[in-house]
Write a structure and sequence with these properties.
Elements lengths: L12 E6 L3 E8 L7 E5 L6 H5 L3 H4 L4 E5 L16 H14 L6 E5 L1 H12 L7 E4 L9 H17 L11 H4 L9 H11 L4 H12 L14 E6 L7 H10 L4 E5 L5 H4 L1 H16 L1 H4 L9 E2 L14
Helix pairs in contact: 3-4, 5-8
């Protein structure tokens, strides 16, 4: 595995001063002249590098690609208490301001998909389209999940006082997201990335995710959208992902044979699907599906089965 990741390459790193919010690191990958801008938003316990290492090189051939770590994760802003997805969305909008980006397409994975939806909700004039992957309208769909959500606030509160808790990393939670499709070396690197996020931050982010629901307003989205469905997902079941796609007006749908950890086990498969999805959103006349429930576009047929970090 080549640790010279596109996402982490120093030549793309910039420090952004977010007025009144702090300073954060962003990775700004230039695309062709005047290319549309994508802002990639990672999932809980992950970092931008981990979630997106396998897709940036493909996307930046056609787009300007901005990646950043969400608050409390990796090199992101310190997380506020309470951790809220609304703050995450506002931080992303402030980052776009700092980079001089007027409109952009948020590309959200899992919890990052919640943040992307909230970006449209809170900053609709900034959002040119939505690309959502391995995500849904809510994480709560069963009595067990509702029970977990009720317990989480107490767990988050307790972790503030437990001795040594600040030395534990998000890998204790995040390892279950990776599935079984990656080799030991790739998995070890992924867990190292997850340890860059404190466990208590990951728990607070999970609590925030449990409070998210877009059922009442997602159907009002008035920009082109696409959903990449991870068809073998055990964390966010494919049924919920398809429900999200059906709720979005005129949504393009791309289904791939991967689980929630497809970004690590088959990054090429994810890259192909995301490129198609972004093209559909940016050029809706050529690629969008009219009525998300009417047609599911065939996903990419080639998978990159050997996870690795790609240098530009």
């Amino acid at each position: 595995m080549d640790h010279g990741s596109v996402t982490a390459s120093a030549r793309f790193a910039r420090t952004a001063d977010l007025r009144g919010r702090g300073r954060t690191v962003v990775w700004d990958h230039p695309g062709p002249p005047n290319a549309p801008t994508l802002v990639l938003l990672h999932g809980v316990t992950l970092t931008a590098e981990l979630n997106w290492f396998g897709v940036v090189a493909a996307l930046r051939r056609r787009y300007r690609v901005v990646t950043l770590d969400l608050p409390g994760h990796g090199d992101g802003l310190p997380h506020r208490r309470p951790f809220t997805l609304e703050d995450c969305a506002d931080d992303v909008a402030a980052t776009a301001d700092a980079l001089g980006i007027d409109r952009f397409v948020p590309v959200g994975y899992s919890m990052g998909g919640f943040v992307a939806q909230l970006l449209w909700r809170r900053h609709p004039h900034r959002v040119a389209g939505l690309v959502l992957c391995a995500t849904a309208r809510t994480v709560l769909d069963s009595p067990l999940e509702h029970g977990v959500s009720l317990v989480l606030p107490s767990v988050v509160h307790a972790t503030r006082w437990l001795p040594g808790i600040d030395r534990l990393g998000a890998d204790l939670l995040g390892s279950s997201l990776l599935g079984n499709g990656c080799d030991g070396h790739a998995r070890g690197w992924a867990l190292t990335q997850m340890r860059r996020t404190p466990l208590n931050t990951a728990l607070a982010a999970m609590q925030a995710a449990c409070g998210f629901a877009s059922h009442r307003w997602i159907g009002l989205v008035d920009v082109p959208s696409a959903v990449v469905v991870t068809g073998e997902d055990r964390i966010v079941p494919a049924r919920r992902q398809r429900d999200l796609a059906r709720a979005l007006p005129g949504c393009a749908v791309y289904e791939i044979a991967g689980d929630h950890g497809v970004f690590l086990s088959s990054p090429g498969l994810l890259a192909d699907a995301l490129l198609q999805a972004c093209d559909a959103v940016v050029s809706p006349v050529a690629g969008a599906v009219v009525g998300g429930s009417d047609l599911i576009a065939d996903g990419p047929v080639q998978a990159d089965a050997v996870p690795g970090l790609t240098a530009s």
